[in-house]
Automatic annotation (TrEMBL):
Matching InterPro entries: Alkaline_phosphatase_core_sf (IPR017850), DUF229 (IPR004245)
Organism ancestry: Eukaryota, Metazoa, Ecdysozoa, Arthropoda, Hexapoda
Keyword presence, Nuclease: no
Pfam entry (one): DUF229
GO cellular component: extracellular space
The protein's name: Uncharacterized protein
Transmembrane segments: 12-29
Gene3D superfamilies xref list: Alkaline Phosphatase, subunit A
Species this protein is from: Parnassius mnemosyne (clouded apollo)
UniProt keyword annotations, A-Z: Membrane, Transmembrane, Transmembrane helix
Top-level taxon of the source organism: Eukaryota
Keyword Transmembrane helix in annotation: yes
Length: 716
């Protein structure tokens, strides 16, 4: 008698192995999804303080904190103000007194204050990064363009939805059933009643911007009935913005177009056509010192849209299990609504929504036009899971989703009245940044149409990224780390504003190389709208300037990361620091410089003496700060507590040295580049200066080889 298959030992072993594999797989998955062993320090602080006397703080908290912060921070020789006006000591964040007495300071504020003591007034040297350096281009790859299948039957433009001509031409007896997709809250929507529309008649959007549509008809070439089901979106006719206050009828419009995970350099590499159009045709100012202020998308969007950080706003995280929502937060949408603006907030990928993934979301839609319920319904049939790997997850019906976002943004700009729009596109960059290239031509088209239809006259345009790519592999390279911290921010000022305030274009341009942040974007938008009364006057304790500064006024060149609200491990600025005499590179740098000087006089060796090192005044190295170099990832799900590891090794390092040589007394200062892997220096004679007079040292060659005057000491 044949055995039933599951009785066979072989199959039993296979099944057990499969089960074990699944268990392991899910546990490993669990590690990725839940990487937060209750490390909720940043928010727990004030509460702990309320309950516990500081001096009697429980030991476990203390030691946990200590372990979080016990990181290698190099000790650095005394900075010498004479030769190193910009030298900063490595920020010694470890030794921060976490506020045993000061009960008003929270964790991060305290860290910023401490850091400010070290870096105040030092300014910021923005690293000059080659967008095409091998270190980062190794992650580039060409991906196929997004192609969507099929043909939508119904499209909407503004409030009117109707069957497209192509379908009318081939199909008879068309009947479409429309159902409004009605927003109830960020987590709930309802489907409205059926409305049946026949033939080419239009359906007008009134209850919602979004509809679900089912159509049937007979194709002319087929005896079988054909049908179509899909979603469409436009703008309902029933939104009537408030009347603007007197003399504020004609303030400018704003469009902020954001792409997830898009660094300044990444945009240059992967969106070359759009970048050229921004620069050459729209004359955009691209900020090269635009630095993130925290981890992830909310850390960029809260400051831009509220002028505050997450920690300064009510705690409405899901895990707090309170019923608070983001409605109580001071979003710019609310202020502008009062000012007579029509507002829009467009974001895709609802399952990882910026304000819904970790937070309770909104109870009422924050802007007049808001895509959340549309995307919830549209993706409800498993778009997120089932189409992984196929292009369908990037499509809404027959249209690539990013294109739909651009289209709806374009439609919004054509509505009447004052307009404020924030569009954030994530699907083509979130999983693999390389995918963004698929949108290059369409963004060019969008930007040119923006210009052609006259929006440059009265609309402030910002094209931005929230942060650069954050994958572990990228973070393993120095340039990848820096690019993560330097997202795209391109600004086009409207012509009307430039006429009103003639010097702002020049000022904005002069700020392009200064250290700037998302807090500045909030201040800038309000400045451009003449709503400065809503500025956030917050200053980091001890700072001279407010944390957010408008880009339409000169940003002080001595502004430092801490002053701008950037913690050391997010700070991309480079700083010069002394190299201690124990450091191997101290002697190496000095020797390399003498050797180079000798090599210059080599051809005249019969006349010029070989010079020997008789003293080293100082050696300095330019580096990103050590917290930045050793930052690995956030330790908590909210992204406020850093996990630090081995520092990444840069490919090159810049050094400066001042040395004295004999015979005679030659004093030289030089800038040199150290090639780390090859352990050698690159020196250019243009970067060497002789700082004492050479008098008649080179008299034997000065007639014939005057270019060696600085280096030659005559033998005779
Ligand atoms: C920074 O520069 C401003 C002028 O732009 C000056 O008033 C301020 O004192 C400087 N701050 C420091 C700390 O040097
Ligand atoms: C939120 O919770 C508080 C107390 O837990 C309750 O008084 C309040 O009505 C709740 N609000 C809503 C909108 O559910
Ligand atoms: C946006 O989509 C609508 C409906 O398909 C279409 O009529 C319109 O031309 C599109 N706009 C742009 C700028 O592509």
């Amino acid at each position: 008698m044949p055995k039933i298959w599951y009785r066979s030992r072989k199959y039993q072993v296979i099944i057990i192995a499969l089960i074990i594999f699944c268990i392991f797989y899910y546990t490993s998955l669990g590690d990725n999804l839940y990487r937060e062993p209750n490390l909720d320090l940043t928010r727990r602080w004030p509460k702990l303080r309320a309950r516990t006397h500081w001096l009697a703080r429980p030991k476990s908290t203390l030691s946990r904190l200590a372990s979080l912060e016990s990181l290698p921070v190099s000790s650095v020789a005394q900075a010498d103000a004479r030769h190193a006006p910009r030298a900063v000591k490595d920020l010694n964040v470890d030794s921060i007194d976490l506020g045993l007495t000061n009960t008003n300071n929270r964790y991060i504020e305290k860290r910023l204050e401490e850091a400010l003591k070290e870096d105040k007034g030092t300014g910021c040297e923005i690293p000059k990064l080659d967008p095409f350096a091998k270190e980062v281009t190794q992650f580039d790859k060409e991906l196929p363009k997004i192609v969507c299948q099929g043909q939508d039957w119904v499209k909407c433009y503004h409030a009117e939805c109707k069957v497209v001509q192509k379908i009318l031409d081939t199909t008879t007896n068309i009947k479409c059933t429309y159902n409004d997709i009605i927003y109830k809250s960020d987590s709930e929507y309802k489907i409205g009643p059926d409305t049946v529309v026949a033939g080419k008649d239009a359906y007008t959007l009134t209850a919602s911007d979004h509809v679900k549509v089912k159509c049937t008809g007979n194709h002319v070439n087929s005896i079988l009935p054909s049908k179509w089901t899909g979603h469409s979106l436009g703008f309902r006719s029933t939104v009537h913005p408030k009347k603007p206050p007197p003399r504020r009828e004609n303030t400018i419009n704003v469009l902020i177009l954001g792409f997830d995970s898009t660094s300044h350099n990444g945009f240059i590499r992967r969106m070359p056509k759009s970048y050229r159009v921004l620069l050459d045709e729209l004359r955009a100012t691209v900020l090269s010192g635009y630095n993130i202020v925290g981890d992830g998308t909310p850390a960029a969007l809260f400051p831009i849209l509220t002028g505050k950080t997450e920690l300064e706003l009510p705690d409405v995280r899901k895990k707090m299990k309170n019923n608070g929502t983001l409605d109580s937060m001071p979003f710019i949408f609310y202020k502008l609504k009062e000012d007579g603006y029509r507002t829009a907030y467009f974001e895709d990928m609802p399952w990882i929504g910026t304000f819904q993934y970790r937070f309770n979301g909104f109870r009422h839609q924050p802007a007049d036009h808001y895509l959340r319920s549309f995307y919830l319904e549209e993706s409800s049939r498993g778009k997120k899971w089932f189409n992984v790997g196929s292009n369908n997850k990037y499509c809404v019906g027959d249209t690539p989703q990013y294109k739909l976002m651009l289209n709806i943004t374009d439609q919004f700009l054509k509505l009447d009245g004052k307009r404020f729009c924030f569009t954030f596109i994530a699907d083509i960059t979130h999983d693999d940044f390389n995918m963004i290239s698929t949108a290059d031509d369409d963004l060019v088209h969008f930007l040119r149409s923006f210009q052609r239809s006259g929006n440059v006259e009265d609309t402030l345009l910002m094209v931005m990224g929230d942060h650069g790519p954050r994958y572990a592999k990228v973070r393993d390279t120095l340039q990848g780390k820096l690019e993560e911290r330097l997202p795209l921010m391109a600004i086009v000022l409207p012509e009307s504003l430039k006429r009103e305030r003639p010097n702002i274009q020049e000022i904005l341009l002069s700020n392009a190389d200064s250290l700037t942040t998302p807090h500045d974007i909030y201040a800038t938008v309000l400045d451009a709208l003449d709503l400065r009364q809503h500025w956030n006057p917050y200053k980091v304790t001890g700072a001279d300037f407010t944390r957010g500064l408008t880009l339409l006024e000169p940003i002080p060149k001595n502004r430092s990361c801490s002053e701008a609200g950037i913690e050391p491990h997010w700070c991309a600025c480079l700083a010069w620091r002394d190299v201690s005499q124990d450091d191997e590179l101290y002697q190496k740098t000095a020797n390399a410089l003498v050797n180079y000087i000798n090599s210059l006089t080599e051809s005249m060796r019969h006349k010029c003496a070989i010079r020997k090192l008789s003293g080293v005044e100082w050696v300095m190295r330019q580096r990103a700060n050590s917290r930045m170099l050793s930052f690995v990832a956030a330790k908590d799900a909210d992204g406020y507590v850093g996990q630090f590891g081995a520092r990444v090794t840069p490919n090159t390092e810049n050094y400066q040295a001042k040395i004295i040589v004999a015979p005679g007394r030659g004093v030289y200062e030089a800038s040199m580049v150290y090639i780390v892997k090859e352990d050698r220096f690159e020196i250019n004679s243009r970067d060497i200066s002789r700082t004492n007079a050479y008098n008649n040292e080179p008299s034997c060659i000065s007639d014939t080889h005057p270019h060696l005057n600085m280096y030659c000491y005559c033998n005779d």
